Amino acid sequence: MRGPALSGVFLLLAGLAAAQEIPFPERRSGRDQMAPETRAMQADDEANPGMLWVLDGADLFARAPTPGAPACAACHEAGALRGVAARYPAWDEAEARPVDLEGRINLCRTRHQGAAPLPREGRDLLALTAYIANQSRGLPIAPPADSRLDPARATGRALFERPLGQLRFSCAGCHDAHWGRHLGAAPIPQGHPNGYPLYRLEWQGLGSLQRRLRNCLAGMRAEPFAPDSPEATALALYLMQRAAPLPVETPAVRP
Amino acid sequence: MARALINMPKTAPAGSVIEIKTLISHPMETGYRPGPDGRLRPRDIITEFVCHYDGAEIFRAELSPASAANPYLTFTTLATASGTLRFTWSGDNGFSQSQDVALTVT
Predict the structure, then answer these.
(1) Could you list the residue range(s) of the whole structural domain that residue B20 is in?
(2) A210-235 pLDDT, tens per residue?
(3) How high is the ipTM of this complex?
(4) Is B35 part of a structural domain of the chain?
(5) A175 is known to lie in a ligand binding site
(6) Among all residues of chain A, which has the CA nearest to that of B29?
(7) Which of A121, A178, A185, B58 is the most buried (most CB within 10 A)?
(8) Which domain holds residue A221?
C-alpha cells in the first residue's frame, strides 16, 4: 500500500499522464495485495474452489471428446504440459497468428480430435485450461522470444497505454502509475495475468483473462474486446511480457 | 454428479480432534437474480448438509439463498472409533449427493 485513496478527479488527471512500465524487481502478483483469508483460500487446494475446475479438466483431458477420436491424454503424457501456460500466448504456424492457451486447445480439438471448438467461458474450456495451466503452477512466466510475436506485443502495449472509453482511462494509468493505491475501496493491483483462469469471488466462478479484460473495459466505459479477438490476444501477449518472471498461480483466487 | 472435495485425515489417534473440510461444486442460484430475458432465474441451492459418523449425526448445516456458490464447510469432530463418515448434500430440484470417507482410529 503506497498511499491513501485518491480522489476521482486526481485519478482522472493522473490517468492521462504518461506512466512508466514497472521495473523487474518491483513486479508483484495481485496475490500480495489480497486479504490474508483470500490468500489462505488460494493456497489450500482443498479450499480453493478453482480446484473443482482443475479436477473436471483432468477428467476431460483423459476422455475422448467424440467416440473414436483420441483423448488429449493419448498424445500428451501426464505432466508433459508443464510450462506451457507460462509461455502462452504463442505463435501458431498454421494460423499465422498468435493464439492463447484457450485458442490452442480449440485448435487441437479441430485439428486432431475431429471435435467442435469449445465455447469461450464455457465450463469445459475453462476446466481444460485450468488443468493445463495448473501444471505450470510455480514456474516463472517466460514469454517466448519469437520475433513474429513482436508486432502483436507492440499492439498490446499500445492498447495498454492508450486512453480508452468515455472516461479516457488507460490500463497503464491505473496499473502502472497507481498500483498499490486504491480506487474507491478497491486496491489497485499491478494487473498481472499470472493466475488465469482464476476464481473470482465477485464472479462466484472461474473466469478467463479475456473475461477480466472485458470487465475492466466496461468499467472504463470502453467497448470490450470481442472474445478471441486479435486485440484481446495482443493485450494478453503484452501483459505476459510485463508480468515476467512472476510465478504462475493457476487457479488463483481473487476478490 | 457434482464434484466434491473432502479433506480429512485418513488415520487419527483415539480421542483426538480432527478437522474436516468439504467443498462442493454448485451454482447456488439465489432465485432473486434476473436472467438475460429479464425473468427471475429459479432458485437452485443446496439447502442442507449433514455428516454422519458411523450412522450418528455429528454435524448439520442449513444453507440459505445468501450462501456463496461452491459452498465450503469446515468443522471438527472427535475421533472415537474406526468407521465411515458419510457426507450428504441435498437441495432444490432433487439435488442429493452422498460421499463416504473411511477413518481409521488408532
Answers:
(1) 4-30+41-105
(2) 999 999 999 999 999 999 999 999 99
(3) 0.88
(4) no
(5) yes
(6) A204
(7) A178
(8) 8-44+147-254
pLDDT digits (tens, 9 = 90+) for A115-163: 999 999 999 999 999 999 999 999 999 999 999 999 999 999 999 999 9
**Which of A134, A158, A192 is the last residue before a domain boundary?**
A134
Distance (Å) from the C-alpha of residue B56 to the closest C-alpha of chain A? Answer: 25
Q: Is B68 on the interface with A (CB under 8 A)?
A: yes
**pLDDT tens for each residue of B40-72:** 999 999 999 999 999 999 999 999 999 999 999
CB pairs under 8 A between A and B: 34
CB-closest option in B5, B68, B74 to A52 = B5
Q: Which of B25, B67, B73 has the most A C-beta neighbours within 10 Å, making it the best mutation to test the interface with A? A: B25
DSSP assignment of chain A, as one string?
--SSPPPHHHHHHHHHS--PPPPGGG---GGGGS-HHHHHHHH-TTT-THHHHHHHHHHHHHS-SSTTSPPHHHHSPTTTTTTHHHH-SEEETTTTEEE-HHHHHHHHHHHHS--PPPPTT-HHHHHHHHHHHHTTTTSBP-----GGGHHHHHHHHHHHHS-BTTTTB-HHHHHTTSTTSEETTEE------TT-SEEETTTTEEE-HHHHHHHHHHHTT-PPPPTT-HHHHHHHHHHHHHHTTSBP-SS-EE-
Per the structure, how many domains does chain B have?
1
| Final residue before a domain boundary, out of A102, A134, A166 | A134
